[in-house]
Design goal:
By secondary structure, this protein is of the alpha+beta class. It contains nine helices and five strands. The longest helix has 18 residues.
Length: 221
């Protein structure tokens, strides 16, 4: 028997249940996209579907073959397939919240085919997922200004180094250039290398160095 939840949730409760930020949920509320449905990856190639208690949404989820209710986790599970996201978008329309990782599966496959290291693969996936979460858009909706805003964010807010920024550029360039065949990413200019200031010794430190050198020269062999 399906466990019943309160039919009325506060935005804070709904955000916690759906595991999304309150700001995202506030935006959806303003755009009349609530109740919301969130999907994320589970274990063993299963997709987790989280929905607030809503009769209409429950009717829709029963349209999906292979569905299974998880009473402990209070969510639904369905087997993953390549056309699953399209099906869910058709069924739930604007109510659907998709974890960005689903959009990055082609990226992961391409990196694997090209034999990129596990470390690089994880890094590229993490960076692209972080960017999509930051933008709040789907990959096909991304514009050049979104990427520039993200660069501004990581440089000025997260204070990343030049080397880290270069990795971010490579990750985004690979996904949007190699996978999605978009050109705007190539407009991004590479940052200059961080300049390290020369080490300047004080007078006392110079005296110590000279004294140490003098002692070495006077020592018998």
């Amino acid at each position: 028997m399906m466990e019943r939840f309160s039919e009325i949730m506060t935005l804070k409760e709904a955000a916690k249940y759906l595991k999304i930020g309150k700001s995202t949920l506030y935006k959806m509320a303003r755009e009349s996209k609530i109740p919301a449905v969130k999907i994320e990856f589970g274990k063993n190639d299963k997709v987790i579907i989280r929905i607030p208690y809503n009769q209409e949404l429950i009717k829709k989820i029963k349209m999906i073959s292979g569905r299974r209710r998880n009473p402990q986790g209070k969510y639904w599970e369905v087997p993953y397939s390549e056309d699953l996201i399209a099906k869910l978008q058709y069924i739930f329309s604007e109510n659907l919240i998709v974890d960005p990782y689903f959009y990055l599966i082609p990226l992961q496959k391409e990196l694997s085919i090209r034999k990129y290291s596990t470390r690089t693969t994880k890094s590229y996936i993490r960076i692209n997922r972080d960017f999509l979460l930051f933008s709040g858009k789907r990959p096909e909706e991304i514009e050049n200004k979104d990427i520039k805003e993200y660069f501004y964010y990581v440089v000025n807010q997260k204070k990343v180094s030049t080397s880290t920024l270069n990795v971010i550029i490579n990750a985004l360039k690979f996904y949007y250039g190699e996978i999605l065949k978009k050109d705007f990413i190539f407009e991004v200019k590479r940052p200059k290398k961080d300049r390290k200031l020369p080490v300047v010794l004080s007078k006392e430190e110079v005296k110590k160095v000279l004294k140490a050198t003098s002692n070495i020269n006077t020592k018998p062999f």
